[in-house]
Amino acid sequence: MTAGPFAGTARWIAAARARESLRPDRLFDDPYAAALAGPAGVAAMEASERAAGGENRFLPVRTRWFDDVLVDAAAGVDQAVLLGAGLDTRAFRLPLPERLRLYEVDQAAVMEEKERTLARLGARPRCRRAGVSADLAGAWTPALLAAGFDPSVRTAWLAEGLLFYLAEEAVRALLREAARLSAGGGLFAADMFGTGVRAQPAMASHLAWRERAGLPPPFATDDPAGLLAACGWRPARITGPGAPDASFGRLPVTRQTPAPGPDRSHLVTATA
Asked: Which of 57, 64, 223, 243 has its CA 20 to 30 A from that of 250?
């Protein structure tokens, strides 16, 4: 996750996790989310929902989907990397094996804020966790390797809520680099938007900010399988909100997995 307003995005997502954790039918329980979000996160969440015209029902589903991917993958990999980890707390709240080495990669400001808050809360990770400060739009591999990452062992890579904020060239470079570092095999999981997301009214302010800042449009793709294959991965599962494996009782379930397209959100996995 990059700096500036995207650090605020991390607090917004934490606020959504905190709200979900209060529900009697919650899809997950994150006891640290409220403190990580703070008042700024709640305000950002409320502003986003005013712009969108209501609660984003996909966010809890997305979090649970990635939770399940990581827990399942942890049974067969030696290390995991959370790319654009933000204020994620999976190392503390999921039943991960103690042997697992989990690396959280994000901007230094985000990582420092998280470390301070978690230390104040007395949080203890359930696996061997390491925070890595790096810019995922630039050269992030040296910092990951310096933290102890081993390219020769099986790895699970998770990129939740990240790719949208990168330029297409940066997305392709990140996917290729993760594939190169997966000599021992492994899994890549990410969420991607179809190109129609750029035309949604709720995106207008974000697009205007990017234009003023001289940034390229946010990343989106209507062909996630083609993208993954072109960057060195073998597409394994491509699903999306409302599919039988991406609903969890919260979203209307379709009879089959929706086909990728401009108006779809994609949840994807691929193997090395």
From this structure: 223
Give residue-wise pLDDT tens across range 147-171: 999 999 999 999 999 999 899 999 9
Q: How many other C-beta atoms can be found within 10 angstroms of the C-beta atom of residue 120?
A: 9
Q: Which helix (H) or strand (E) holds 156?
A: strand 155-159
pTM value is 0.92
Nearest-angstrom CA–CA distance, 138 and 26: 37
* Residue spans per domain, the chain: 58-271
The answer to whether domain 58-271 has CATH 3.40.1190.10 is no
Q: Which residue has the higher pLDDT, 158 or 258?
A: 158
**Amino acid letter, 240:** G
Token reading at 271 = 């193997």
- Asked if residue 226 lies in contact with residue 214, where contact means CB atoms within 8 angstroms, the answer is no
Tokens encoding 200: 């949604």
The structure tokens listed for 37 are 């979000």
